[in-house]
Design goal:
mainly alpha, 186 residues, single chain
Amino acid sequence: AHKDKVDSLDKIPVIIFASKGQQAAQRIYLGVRHLFGYREWPPLSKAKFLHSTIKNDSDLERTVRELGIKKQEIRRYLIPYRILIDIKINMPTGEDFWVLGESLSRSGIKEYIELEIDARSMKVRGVNKNKLNNLLDFIYGKLDSSKKQRDPSTKKVLDTRQLKDLATVLTAPKARAVFERGADLD
């Protein structure tokens, strides 16, 4: 059966971007095709693409212009990715990565982790690493250092609909203290 599949591949469609002058065309092709859903990429792949494409504020403006994508949409992928690579944390995969992006759209959560972003380039200026680790514990589960992965059975946010409640709790000092000591989100 394997040989039949190999033999059936007489022609394999490819797109060749031959010269450096065609980098813009390649960026636009990948961006439109994958970011807008013709060929859906997982959120982490979108974040990696945007990170490799946007190095400064002129890259950000060019990406917005070329792809017709809003800065807010770029931000939802790019900021969580940049935070995680800056502090050298293993990336959550698949839809799990999207939970962090979704959580960072809540002002109470951004305030809690003391997130500072350069709005022009979307570079991370600062984040409280201890509070970020707390946030990751809340949404992904506690880190099992022996396995070097998070235990999803210990996460406190079970659904993205609870992120609004999490933001509310994290902005109320008494509620936050109780929650950080182990109380449930309710």
